[in-house]
From TrEMBL:
Requisite cofactors: Ca(2+)
Domain of life: Eukaryota
Glycan-modified residues: 269, 323
Disulphide bonds in the chain: 42-352
Family: Belongs to the paraoxonase family.
Catalytic reactions of this protein: a phenyl acetate + H2O = a phenol + acetate + H(+); an N-acyl-L-homoserine lactone + H2O = an N-acyl-L-homoserine + H(+)
Molecular-function GO term, any one: arylesterase activity
Protein name listed in UniProt: Paraoxonase
Binding-site residues, Ca(2+) 2: 54
Residues reported to bind Ca(2+) 1: 53, 116, 167-168, 223, 268-269
Annotated compartments: Membrane
A single BP term in Gene Ontology: response to toxic substance
Length: 354
């Protein structure tokens, strides 16, 4: 009798695990293949061979790239090289990416940059916020950009218990930002379990020197975050739920949900066209290929443009799609006056004239 009960329980446990595994395959869109959508005028950017996880472009056309991200379990083409921040002037005919110098005192050896965001203060000071994973922990580094010297002056390292697994960031002040946590847990095994069990414990946190608070939660895997040009709305990509969430920003910086846009792909970074307000979403059509790297069947890339997100019927168009023969694992797409930059998690970066 006891043995029958044990067998029964074992059967139920196996069925549950099987169901979770099947659900995970769906969340990863493990069986999705894509049709190519080509852009005519594109070239790979020299000097970026091992990922350009995030890109942020200043109004004057200077683009920042965070490069060399390493995450446990994720492939890397340069596992021993620390990460860095590159800059490229999009106004130049033959724009090239140059590495920015970082001020002394900052630990470059453990620099592992992820999401980035810029903020321009009233006095024109440019702050660069960088999500960093030194020894796979999460911090936010605040730098001041010194354009004449092509350098970054390190101002502050922010650590907080509400920022256990930070992914992306959008700055809203010189020491103020919203950030996504892609997991609730800090420990790699618990993170894995959290994702596997589909707990939906990922969150968005508001940080300021005076107040730090969770302002949205219940995400499967909160990833890219950005803000509308009028600064009224915050957009959050939930990668494993295949959604973009739209929140209205309140005067106290709390967020109230105004809509959720379902998509057929794993959305990574979101960037905003400063003029039209269109959202450019860089996506992973097939998450399985991204996490289980096979050079013969590499991860693909997909860039979506979403117009009129606040309207009844937002329009979603595929601007670029590639099976990995050119670009693998697109994680960010950023536009500047008819130019499109597409970065990837651990591969190269593409520069296109639209
Ligand atoms: C990707 O597409 C190209 C043609 O566009 C094809 O030659 C190549 O075999 C495809 N690669 C994979 C991995 O499917
Ligand atoms: C995604 O893109 C945004 C905006 O360009 C950036 O701030 C963020 O760091 C990027 N990276 C990730 C991992 O979401």
């Amino acid at each position: 009798m006891g043995r029958l009960v044990t067998l029964g329980l074992l059967g139920i446990a196996l069925a549950l695990l099987g169901e979770r595994l099947l659900a995970l395959r769906n969340r990863l869109k493990a069986s999705r293949e894509i049709e190519s959508v080509d852009l005519p005028n594109c070239h790979l950017i020299k000097g970026i061979e091992a990922g350009a996880e995030d890109i942020d472009i200043l109004p004057n056309g200077l683009a920042f790239f965070s490069v060399g991200l390493k995450i446990p379990g994720l492939h890397s083409f340069a596992p021993n090289k620390p990460g860095g921040i590159l800059m490229m002037d999009l106004n130049e005919e033959k724009a090239r990416a140059l590495e920015l110098r970082i001020s002394r005192g900052f630990d470059l050896a453990s620099f592992n940059p992820h999401g980035i965001s810029t903020f321009i203060d009233d006095d024109d000071t440019v702050y660069l916020f960088v999500v960093n994973h030194p020894e796979f922990k999460s911090t936010v580094e605040v730098f001041k950009f010194e354009e004449e010297e092509n350098s970054l002056l390190h101002l502050k390292t922010i650590r907080h218990e509400l920022l256990p697994s930070t992914n992306d960031i959008i700055a809203v002040g010189p020491m103020h930002f919203y950030a996504t946590n892609d997991h609730y847990f800090f420990d790699p095994f618990l993170k894995y379990l959290e994702t596997y069990l589909n707990l939906h414990w990922a969150s968005v946190v508001y940080y300021s020197p005076n107040e730090v608070k969770v302002v949205a939660e219940g995400f499967d895997f909160a990833n890219g975050i950005n803000i509308s040009p009028d600064k009224k709305y915050i957009y959050v990509a939930d990668t494993l739920a295949h959604e973009i969430h739209v929140f209205e920003k309140q005067p106290d910086m709390n967020l109230t949900q105004s809509k959720v846009l379902p998509l057929d792909t794993l959305v990574d970074n979101l960037s905003i066209d400063p003029f039209s307000g269109d959202i450019w979403a860089s996506c992973h059509p097939n998450g399985q290929k991204l996490f289980v790297y096979d050079p013969n069947n590499p991860p693909s890339s997909e860039v979506l443009r979403i117009q009129n997100i606040l309207s009844e019927k937002p329009s979603v168009s595929t601007v670029y799609a590639n099976n990995g023969s050119v670009l693998q694992g697109s994680s960010v797409a950023s536009v500047y006056y008819g130019k499109l930059l597409i970065g990837t998690l651990y591969h190269r970066a593409l520069y296109c004239e639209l």
